[in-house]
Each structure stands twice: as C-alpha cells, then as structure tokens.
From TrEMBL:
<protein>
    <submittedName>
        <fullName>Alginate export family protein</fullName>
    </submittedName>
</protein>
<dbReference type="InterPro" id="IPR025388">
    <property type="entry name" value="Alginate_export_dom"/>
</dbReference>
<keyword id="KW-0732">Signal</keyword>
<feature type="domain" description="Alginate export">
    <location>
        <begin position="39"/>
        <end position="438"/>
    </location>
</feature>
<feature type="signal peptide">
    <location>
        <begin position="1"/>
        <end position="28"/>
    </location>
</feature>
<dbReference type="Pfam" id="PF13372">
    <property type="entry name" value="Alginate_exp"/>
</dbReference>
Amino acid sequence: MIFGERSGSRASMVAVAVLLALPAPVLAADDTQEDDGFSIEGSVRGRFERIDDEFRPGKLPDETIWSTRALVKAEYATGPVRFVGELLDARAYGVDPGSTVNTSTVNVLEPIQAYAQFDLGEVADGWKTSLQAGRFTMKYGSGRLVSRIGFSNVPTSFTGARIDLASEGGDQISLFWTMPQERRPGDAASIRDNDFKLDREGTDLQLFGANYQSKLDALGASLELYGYGLLEDDRPDNATRNRQLFTPGLRLLRNPKDGAFDFELEAAYQLGTIRTGKAATAAEQDVSAWMLHAEVGRTLGGPAGLRIAALFDAASGDSAGGDYTRFDSLFGARSSTFGPTANFGPLSFANIISPGLRVAAKPSKRIDGSLSVRLAWLQRETDSFAKTGVVDPLGDAGRFAGTQYEASLGYWIVPKSVRFGFGAAYLSKGRFLEEAANAPDTGDTRYILSDVTFSF
C-alpha cells in the first residue's frame, strides 16, 4: 500500500491542529516551559547568496539568491506524554530559469514535525525508554548519513516510529523505521514561484536502522556503531533506480578540550543492489561502496579559543562494469564536513579524495569563525565528481578537481535572539573541472553568503 497524499495530509492536519489549538497567551510566551505544559519557540532567517562562475553544467553562470526560512515549534507536555508540532515556511525570491535553487531551499508552509513521545520508564532493567511516533526530524552521530539539515533552508522529515533507550552508565540505543518525506512540488517552475503543495511519504521509500553509542573511559572517547537500511521502489508516477541498500558503520570520537588533542574517525560500507537506470527493464547491479572521515585536532585555548584540525575525507566512485561503487550518503548533512552547502556545496561523500586543514576560533560567547582549505581529487576518473554533476566518461581530464578555500563568521548581535552570519568560498578549479566533457566554460567559482536569524 502506498500512502501518498493521504498520509501527508494527515500529518499536516495534526501539526496544524497543534499550532492552531494554542491559546493566545501561549503564542506570546518565550521558549521556556509554561505551568500548563505549553511552550512555543521559533526563528526567522533572511539570507543573501551570490555565485559567480558556476561550477555546475546547465546552470546560470552567475546568480544572486534571496531566501527566507521561518520555523515555529509548539509543544504540549502532560505527564509522560509530549506532543510536538513544527511548521516550516521556506521561500526564495527573484529566481530565474537555470537557477541552482531547488527543494533544499524552497518548501512552503510544510508541517515538518507532528509527533507524540511517550516516556515508558525502565522497560528493561536500568534502561530508560521512550517511544516516538508521527512525523519528526532526526540526527544520528555526526549527521553525515542521517541528519536534521540546518545550513540549507529545508530539513528532511521522516514519518514513522523510533525507540530510544539510555542506560545508567551512559550507553544509548536507538531503533527506528520511517518513510522519508518527499519534498513537493519538485518541478523548477513551481519552485521559482514558491508554489504550495504538501509533501508526501509512502512505503515506496523506507529508511530504518539502529544506532548504538557507548563511552570509552580509558580513551576519554566514545564509540558509535550503526546500520541503516534504505528500500526504494517504483510507483506509477515515479520511476526510480530501486535502491536496496544497507550501510553499516562506526565512529570513534574524542571531543575537543582545551590544551588537548581530539580526534574523530568514521567509516561506513554500503552494500545491496541498484538498477543501472530508472526503466523497469534496467539491469540490476550489486553495490559495494565506502566512505571515510578522519580528523585530528588540538584546541590551543587562550583568549582566541583556537582549534587547529587536519582533515581527510574520501568516498568511492563508480566505474564501468562490475559492481556499482558510488557511495550514497542517504539523508546526511555536508556543511559541517565540507563547508557551505545551500546553493553552493561542490564537495560531498561521493567519488572524492580530499585532505584539508581547518582553523576555528571562538574568542567569546558572541563570536565564532573558521578558515579552511581543501584539495580534492576524484577517486574514479570516469565518474561524476562529488556534487558537481561534472563528468568525463573517457577519463581524459585527469583526477585533480581543484582547491576549495572557505571562511565563516558568526556574531550574536543580541545573545540567543539575533545572530548575524557571513560566509565566503572560493573554488580554484583544477584540470578536471576545466577540461571534463560537460564542464561549464567559466572561471574559478566565487561564493558569498550573509544571513540574519531572529529567534524567540
């Protein structure tokens, strides 16, 4: 059974009902819990982006993008039960044909959360347990495979259920089964016009899995083990490649601390099957893909709050014949690893080898910033590079994609209420991005971003 618009409408009605049922005094409340169990919080963000000498084929060579994002989240808690509804309104303005703007920027009046959470107490000996059901956002571990995306305008929602267990010793287990949200409308003309259409979810796309986290006191670190499954099937109005994927992985982490070294290592392997095309008659291939993130840093402390980190990221790419070997990062976020995404973001965990260096500073509670530089090569010279859409089927353009420089600055104009953000990136194109078969005839890509966020 495919749930389609009916299930999307039900989730929407629940969230809207939660918001509309709130009495007027609640809508004026701050983000603290009220005596009657109601609370409300939200934010409004306005953003400016400018891209010059676009790196993606078929897009405008230069573009200015204005966008807004509003979020309102309402909560009612009574005893062991909590009800949550969250409404998103994300729009872009002055968008021309050929723009990079897509459903990660535009999603009008969408209830992204509408769920109930139940505190079940100690179902197992020493393990506190909670159950969550409905539509919700979620993030596991680093968020590289499953995340509530915050840098771009539109986070991904999931409809289903999850069970979370926490032991007295700090171990955590999470089990979930969901139907990921399909953002609508998806056609370019409707996106340019900020048209409204409720998202949908159905059993034709399912994400499920388990996540386990444990403290390693001897190392002053933590260990995370996970496995995520993705099942994708055709439906009458949507042909797919029928991805049937399983992605097990691990993550070892020591958090930054003044005067000490920290580290992070994450690796995942992907197996399953995928069709060679979207046609129902397309041949099926076995999947064998991988990704790796490694980072070693040191926080120097002092008045500048400096941290310096060496980075290395890699993911497999595909080649003709044999297994399908291009890694699929599922519903992960890229900005914390590869810098600004939104309507930029050339780098991703697909067909890439990328060492880098990052320097971050936090001189006060109001100011933070970072500088980074990354080199990037293709793991397979005949596959599309990362998130660019640039490909050279004959492999004549080599493997060096280029160098990305990035800077960011954040400042709380009013602490916890008004925040200013600025970002800039420069992609110095290497031979591949200049000479590949479909590479646009543009120079090095320049990108700037500025936004202001009002929170309540």
